[in-house]
Design a protein that fits this description.
Blueprint lengths: L4 H11 L26 E7 L3 H4 L3 H11 L4 E7 L3 H9 L18 E5 L6 H10 L15 E5 L15 E3 L3 H14 L5 H8 L5 E2 L4 E5 L5 E6 L8 E2 L25 E4 L1 E2 L9 H5 L4 E2 L2 H14 L4 E5 L9 H12 L5 E3 L10 H7 L7 E6 L3 H6 L6 H13 L4 E8 L6 H22 L4 E8 L16 H14 L5 E5 L2 H11 L4 H11 L13 H11 L3 H5 L14 E2 L4 H12 L16 H7 L35 H4 L2
Parallel strand pairs: 1-2, 1-3, 3-4, 4-5, 9-19, 10-13, 13-14, 15-16, 16-17, 17-18
Antiparallel strand pairs: 5-6, 7-8, 11-12
Helix pairs in contact: 3-6, 5-17, 9-10, 10-11, 13-14, 14-15, 17-18
């Protein structure tokens, strides 16, 4: 087996001419960070379990890469899943998965951090572990292996990946990863079990092996209970009260990636309360970056990267309090450079004419709006209420400013949806196109995107089933027949893919057996339509005796214990229950900024203690979760690096 960087580099010289896009595997890009391996105390491999082309655009990985490498005694390097051609050669030649920067085998690192932003990456994560020469199951890895830590939005229900991951970071990872590193450095001489007992005390850290799941005879969950005194009954998500400094020294890829732009996160969280929206619930509370910090970051990005497009990211960019000031100042400071400034997430009710004017000539390809539903009834049901007149007036102002294409995104299969609500999508698309033709004639167009509703964990709709598949296909057929003709274009996702995502996102720990079995049957790159192996998944489900409909098409009792019951997003179940019952009466809530509905997040935010913003990102040696009362047989709380206390 090839085990040294020199051996791997020599092998790559022979291999890369034989694979597609060799730039995926070379490293050496402008702005990459390479440190002296022998002078570093702790090494982290940051993995995105999909190909380089996609993973390089993941902002979460960029943030951690930048943050860890700012510490002189820490090192972070990147790793992505090889494409099928490269993987075949690697397996044939027994080449282990390696980092891009130093070409070190992943097994040489102290920690492997895996980003899981969506569930279709689960089998790729197992494949990545296997390519690294590591057992896929956590219990089979001792302290000689890197600690495997996973984070991302798909981890808010960690159970379908529980047997494979040592530690899940629930919530925002910037502080948690530094705390985990601190514990691992202090406890390096201990066995893996003892290391994990310390890590379980860090807020936001979920160690699956320290929890047992009991089931009722009907397959529903009876209880999820900790089996170690260090493990809290509920794992509270970790929140970063002060947004970390924005990344400005972006690595410039050698090949084209999915987003050829530099992103700046201008805001975290959302106050709108859309009942289907997982991200809107789990990322509360709202935190905004100061305007001047954004402008300074843009200066540095342009100096260090040469990007011609800057994306101002958040869940709802037009809800950013100072969006008008920001876009005006961007125009004043950078307007002469011809930059493309994109605001990818805009809400109809907060898109103002002034905002459109401030964007100037920065984007004219298409303007995206997401009504999600087209009838008043459905907008009230999902708590995304905007009047028909407001939407058409917004469309008018967009077309008036020389945008010729408006993209409208909808969801079908919402609770209580009927065919007439789908017909409303058709009518609305035609009306928007009619408005566009007033300004651009036949050059105006409307693109309609349609996806299938999935009742995600930690949302008010988590009790709801997915829509009946026969009805979903009937609704989709109606849209295909009628959203067509000059100026109208329909795009849709395959409802089967939504069911697949549904049972993974809503699964319990038994689904983990299905994930592993499907992977062993050849499933990987499940997010790629041409590689999704439905037969492997169906076979795995049958062998495990599980029906996906149990997870996707069954209405939950109000008092049912969810597989994610032990994960606390700081939004109370009481609030979610009330909001769910309100949806059935088509009652809406206003924006939380106008009125607080006591969802539970504000007390959590007030409890966070910080010294100063300047000190917020110093690497603490060994911080831990604090408990009010020490339990009998608890592992001693680690303070500083008391090796005499934690020595075996």
């Amino acid at each position: 087996m090839l085990q040294t960087p020199a051996q791997i580099k020599a092998a790559l010289e022979r291999i890369l001419p034989r694979v597609a896009k060799p730039g995926r595997y070379t490293g050496g890009e402008y702005n990459q960070i390479v440190k002296n391996w022998d002078e570093i105390d702790f090494k982290v491999a940051l993995a995105f379990p999909d190909i380089y082309d996609i993973g390089m655009s993941n902002l979460g990985l960029m943030i951690l890469y930048d943050l860890i490498n700012k510490h002189k005694n820490l090192l972070a390097e990147r790793v992505y899943s090889p494409w099928t051609d490269m993987e075949a050669i690697m397996r044939q030649r027994e080449m282990p998965l390696f980092s891009l920067e130093s070409k070190r085998p992943i097994r040489d690192f102290d920690l492997l951090g895996i980003s899981l932003p969506y569930e279709q990456l689960f089998t790729n994560a197992l494949n990545l572990l296997d390519l690294a020469g590591m057992p896929v199951r956590s219990l089979d890895r001792d302290a000689s292996y890197p600690l495997v830590v996973a984070g991302g939005h798909a981890c808010y229900n960690p159970e379908p990946m529980a047997p494979f991951i040592d530690v899940f970071v629930i919530g925002e990872g910037e502080e948690a990863i530094l705390k985990i590193i601190g514990v691992m450095r202090a406890a390096a001489h201990l066995d893996r079990e003892m290391q994990l007992r310390y890590i379980a005390q860090i807020e936001g850290c979920y160690v699956p092996r320290f929890y047992d799941v009991a089931y009722h005879d009907d397959g529903t969950i009876k209880a999820i209970t900790p089996n170690r005194p260090e493990a809290p009954a509920k794992v509270l998500k970790t929140i970063v009260p002060v947004m970390p400094p924005p990344v400005t020294n972006f690595i410039i890829p050698f090949i084209e990636t999915v987003h050829n732009r530099a992103p700046i996160e201008i805001m975290r969280g959302c106050t709108r309360g859309c009942r289907f929206c997982h991200a809107g619930m789990v990322t509360r509370p709202v935190r905004e970056r100061p305007v001047e910090e954004v402008l300074t970051a843009m200066d540095k990005i342009l100096e260090s990267t040469g990007y011609e497009e800057i994306a101002l990211l958040s869940l709802s960019s037009s809800d950013y309090t100072n969006v008008l000031e920001l876009t005006r100042k961007i125009g004043e400071r950078f307007g002469h450079l011809g930059l493309n400034i994109s605001l990818p997430s805009l809400r109809i009710e907060s898109v103002s004419t002034q905002l459109m004017d401030n964007l100037g000539d920065s984007k004219r390809g298409g303007f995206t709006l997401a009504p999600e539903a087209a009838s008043e009834k459905m907008r009230r049901t999902i708590n995304k209420f905007v009047t028909h007149e407001d939407l058409l007036e917004t469309a008018r102002e967009i077309y008036k400013r020389n945008w010729r294409t408006i993209k409208l995104y909808f969801m079908i299969g919402h609770p209580m949806e009927e065919m007439e609500d789908v017909e409303a999508i058709i009518d609305l698309a035609r009306q928007v196109l009619f408005v566009g033709r007033e300004y651009h004639g036949k050059k105006a167009s409307v693109n309609v995107g349609v996806s299938t509703f999935i009742p995600k964990p930690h949302t008010p709709f988590q009790w709801e089933p997915m829509g009946d598949m026969d009805e979903i296909y009937a609704k989709l057929d109606r849209l295909k027949r009628k959203v067509r003709g000059p100026g109208l274009r329909l795009r849709w996702n395959n409802p089967k893919e939504s069911v697949f995502e549904g049972f993974l996102s809503r699964g319990d720990r038994r689904i983990a057996e299905v994930v592993e079995l499907a992977w062993r049957k050849g499933a990987k790159f499940d997010a790629w339509r041409e590689h999704y192996d439905e037969e492997a998944w169906q076979s795995a489900l049958e062998e495990m005796g599980l029906d996906p409909a149990f997870y996707t098409h069954r209405r939950r009792r109000i008092d049912e214990v969810f597989p994610w019951e032990h994960i606390d997003i700081a939004v109370t179940k009481k609030f979610l229950t009330e909001d769910y019952l309100m949806s059935q009466e088509q009652e809406t809530r206003v924006d939380c900024r106008e009125q607080c509905f006591a969802c539970g997040i504000l007390p959590k935010l007030k409890d966070l203690r910080r010294e100063t913003e300047d000190e917020a990102w110093k690497c603490p040696p060994v911080p831990t979760r604090k408990h009010h009362k020490p339990r009998q047989e608890r592992v001693p709380v680690v303070e500083g690096i008391p090796l005499t206390v934690i020595s075996s």
